[in-house]
Amino acid sequence: MRLLHTADWHIGRRLHGFDLTAEQEHAFKQIEAIALEAKVDGVIIAGDLYDRSLPSEQAVALLNDMIQRLNLHDQLPIYAISGNHDSAIRLATGAPWYQATNYYLATELAQAFEPIELTDIQIFLLPYFETFQAQQYFNDPAIKNVAAAMARIVTRMKTKFDADKRQILVAHFFADGSATTDSETQLKVGGLGAIPVNLLQDFDYVALGHLHGKDALHADNARYSGSPVKFSLSEAHQQKGVWLIDTADMSRTFKPLTPINDVVQLTDNFANLTDPDYYGQLKCDDYLGITLTDTKPIVNVLARLREIYPNIISLERAQGYTTQVAMQTLDLAHKSPLDLLNDFYEHVAKEDLTEQQKQWAAAALKQANEVQQS
Amino acid sequence: MRLLHTADWHIGRRLHGFDLTAEQEHAFKQIEAIALEAKVDGVIIAGDLYDRSLPSEQAVALLNDMIQRLNLHDQLPIYAISGNHDSAIRLATGAPWYQATNYYLATELAQAFEPIELTDIQIFLLPYFETFQAQQYFNDPAIKNVAAAMARIVTRMKTKFDADKRQILVAHFFADGSATTDSETQLKVGGLGAIPVNLLQDFDYVALGHLHGKDALHADNARYSGSPVKFSLSEAHQQKGVWLIDTADMSRTFKPLTPINDVVQLTDNFANLTDPDYYGQLKCDDYLGITLTDTKPIVNVLARLREIYPNIISLERAQGYTTQVAMQTLDLAHKSPLDLLNDFYEHVAKEDLTEQQKQWAAAALKQANEVQQS
Questions:
Q1: Chain B contacts of A96, Cβ < 8 Å?
Q2: How many CB pairs under 8 A join A and B?
Q3: Which pLDDT score, from 0 to 100, does residue B374 have?
């Protein structure tokens, strides 16, 4: 059999205020095309279908359309679980009806122990869970973290293993040894914690969701698919895509997805960035994180850059111009206004005021004093 | 065929802060029992399944359980529409799958023109709609109100009429001539407006939702079922229940539902209300709207009544003690504090201060003045 493994759709997500609906639809159409062209026997969605537990009406309509398209129109089986961003209860609406068309959606821990039996494989759907849910399910308060819970879960799953079939696990958690990016909820802090990869060794393939890059984990038998769309600047370097898994030999192939507008990190000075010969070579409506290497103040810098690059999602200074204006511990009261201005300029621009600048500043100060005294 | 007609479940609704979950479950179990005992061929739910467009997780879980119970466990067909309190988009989740088990859920106007064809009847499911939706559907901005829209809708529906069958319409609107209570959203003001009953004359039965009392409309062929639970004090007098419709002769029978705690209006004086011989005759944990006939102030009146009646939802004075302290137009500045106090007391208690009360008041005023000057 051949399965497509995707995850972390985060329908409804925005990127620094920009609506990603078109990107998400664009990625979905590619996923659908890959599934149909590869004649897959099913699509795995390993959690975080929605970006939030209370998705907007627009997000609900969009995900409903996508799932109906795959399952009802294309007649592709779907194997899905809820992730930490989904409301398991809301997502479960309609689930008992979906199985009639081979759309399997697990949102409760108890469902993890009833594998879906296919010709040569068993698929275990383990939704995102928290430690207290495992404690309740096993009626054992001694389960103190998700790793301990996962050990118990795997032990119980193994009682359902059919020796004549391969076992596939669909899950949504942080696997020990994975690398994170900014756009993933950091579950390590007070949340899910990490699951040691060796707990997964009894499965022929573990289709993971939660981390947004396909390279977050390298284990022989476990992979994150990553999200289909880049959701933060820290994902700029990632190649998004989906996995195709052939269960005959458990081989896997990564199928890349391309965005409409990419998320890109640009580092250069203002003169270059505003030079037509420079930006003529770029796709200016990408979602850009720009790092300016200039050291001097630039008036209206963001507005001027936006005239060329409409989708700037972040603007920083390489030398930390905007963020590292440290508090001085000098005796400010004993310095003249002109000296203070010079200190400030030197701090941010890494050079002294020129004589011309000092004259302008002195004239401005004189005028300000006259206004104050009049 | 035999159909059960209910509506306005408003799952998730609260009554003056009191959780109605137990009441709604209790009513549901009676509806289910009536449906099974009468061996109905289907259950009509004429809109407002939820109380709000963004129902809580608890409400979602409760409605999901109810629908699964009726349709999957009891194998009863369901004919449902969205009401003005529902989010049509959210409610529609899963709808394309539901038809496989004869759960028909219409949330869009376009669905109203594809009747469900049963042996001897056609069921038209018309979800709640607003004028602009009819304008869009018919591509006719000349449709200026819902009455005009409904005329167009009925005309189109009639093209689908099968002369060998009876026609049943399920709809959610304010039918002209209906009486409202406090707990229904007043759609007349800037909302749905009213639909003249004569527009409904071509249907053998119109199963209506929106108004919460079964007696809100008396037409030969149209009825509100009312809500299964009382949702406001203005519904205290209503007998809640559901209709059973026999399509052979279009006869109908009203089947009453009983609450756990009723909503009751009590009008009496404080002495009686706190007399064990009096309240021993009452079901004290009903949801009570109490109107006190006393004219004098009663210290801690609500707390004292709640010791006997835990579920008071409103407390008023028959003479308007709490609500009708009108602004005086007298020249207050020229009256002594004692005169002002006497005026106030006379206004609310309908009698003058006694000599003893005046002495107490004078002493208190003297003391207050001394404190102020010290």
A1: 68, 72
A2: 49
A3: 56
Burial of B147 (0-12, 13-18, 19+ CB in 10 A): middle
Minimal C-alpha gap between A210 and chain B (Å): 23
Count CB-CB contacts under 10 A for residue A217. Answer: 21
Return the structure tokens found at B167: 């026609």
Q: From A54, which residue of chain B is nearest by alpha-carbon distance? A: B54
At B313, give phi and psi (nearest 5°).
-105, -15
**CB-CB contact of A50 with A12 (8 Å):** yes
User: CA geometry: angle at B59 spanning A11 and A46, to 5°?
Assistant: 30
Q: Helix or strand or coil: residue A244?
A: strand
State which H helix or E strand residue A267 sits in.
Answer: strand A263-268
Enter the DSSP assignment of A71: I
Q: Which has more pLDDT, A284 or B331?
A: A284
Tell if the CB–CB gap between A64 and B100 is shorter than 8 Å: no
Q: What are phi and psi of A353, to 5 degrees?
A: -65, 145
What proportion of chain B, given as a percentage, has pLDDT over 70?
Answer: 90
**pLDDT for B179:** 59
Say whether A57 and B96 touch across the interface (CB within 8 A).
Answer: no
CA of A282 to nearest chain B CA: how many angstroms apart?
Answer: 40
CB–CB of B96 and A72 under 8 A?
A: yes
CA separation for the pair B187, B104 (Å, rounded): 26
The closest CB to that of A94, out of B87, B89, B94, belongs to B94
Nearest residue of A to residue B99, measured between CA atoms: A97
How many angstroms separate the CA of residue A89 from the nearest CA in chain B?
6
Interface check for A87 against chain B (CB to CB < 8 A): the answer is yes
pLDDT score, position A208? 97
Rounded to whole angstroms, how far apart are CA atoms B66 and B80?
13
Alpha helices (H) in chain B, listed in sequence order: 21-37, 57-68, 88-91, 95-98, 131-138, 146-158, 270-273, 276-279, 301-308, 337-349, 355-373
| A296-302 average pLDDT score | 90
In degrees rounded to 5, what are phi and psi of residue A59? -65, -40
Chain A CB within 8 Å of residue B155 CB: no
B103 interaction partners in chain A (CB closer than 8 Å): 97
Mean pLDDT, residues A152-159 taken together: 98
Residue of A nearest to B102 (CA): A97
Task: Specify the pLDDT at position A183.
Answer: 65
Nearest CA to A314 among A230, A232, A229, A213? A232
Nearest CA in chain A to B98: A97
Cβ proximity of A136 and A129 under 8 Å: no
The structure tokens listed for A261 are: 């507008």
CATH number of A2-256: 3.60.21.10
Q: Structural domain boundaries of chain A?
A: 2-256, 263-317, 332-373
Please identify which residue in the block is written with the tokens 């064809």: B117
Residue of chain B whose alpha carbon sits nearest to that of A94: B94
Q: How far is CA B183 from the centre of its chain?
A: 4
Q: Do A97 and B92 touch (CB under 8 A)?
A: no
